[in-house]
Amino acid sequence: MKFHPLFALPSVVLVLAWPVHAETPAQELEYESVFEGYQAYSDPEIQNWPKVNQLVEEIGGWRVYAREPYEEKKEGKPTEGSSVDAERPPATKPPAPTPHHHGGAR
Predict the structure, then answer these.
(1) Rg of the Cα atoms in the chain
(2) Are 51 and 59 in contact (CB under 8 A)?
(3) Please, which pLDDT band fits residue 98 given cuts at 50, 70 and 90?
(4) I want to staple 60 with a disulfide (CB 3.0 to 4.6 A). Which of 49, 64, 98, 99 is the partner?
(5) Left if phi > 0, otherwise alpha if psi is -120 to 50, otherwise beta: which for 60?
(6) pLDDT in tens, 39-84
(7) Verdict on whether the full-model pTM lies above 0.85
(8) Are 73 and 79 contacting, i.e. CB atoms less than 8 angstroms apart?
């Protein structure tokens, strides 16, 4: 009878799957949920919109709100989401594209 190597395969797999350090206890892992400090969204208090519009008008309108980020930057206060790149001068104009010379139709 001829011995076929596939018969030895289950015993090889069993030996390779056997834990080498079975006596060593596994490291304890601590679980911390990403939702532990979660605060659900709550709608803001409903206000009388004509009064709110009047307040915005007294403050100076939407243009005042549009200028706020720029005024804070001038005062040296970092605005929310600002970075070092935001204060970098704008990049110079990129060079004009050159035509391709790939030997196409002439």
Answers:
(1) 34
(2) no
(3) confident
(4) 64
(5) left
(6) 999 998 899 999 999 998 898 888 888 888 888 777 665 555 555 4
(7) no
(8) yes
Residue whose pair of structure tokens reads 């679980």 in the numeric block: 31
Provide the token pair at 98: 């050159």
Please report where in the chains the tokens 């035509």 appear, as a residue: 99
Per DSSP, the residues of 24-92 read: SPPPP-----TTTT-----PPPP--HHHHHHHHHHHT-HHHHHHHHHHHHHTTPPPTT--GGGGSPPPP
d(C-alpha 85, C-alpha 88), whole Å: 5
Instruction: Assign residue 76 a region (left: φ > 0; alpha: ψ between -120 and 50; beta: otherwise).
Output: left
Tokens of 82: 């600002």
Q: Which residue is it, tokens 């069993």? A: 14
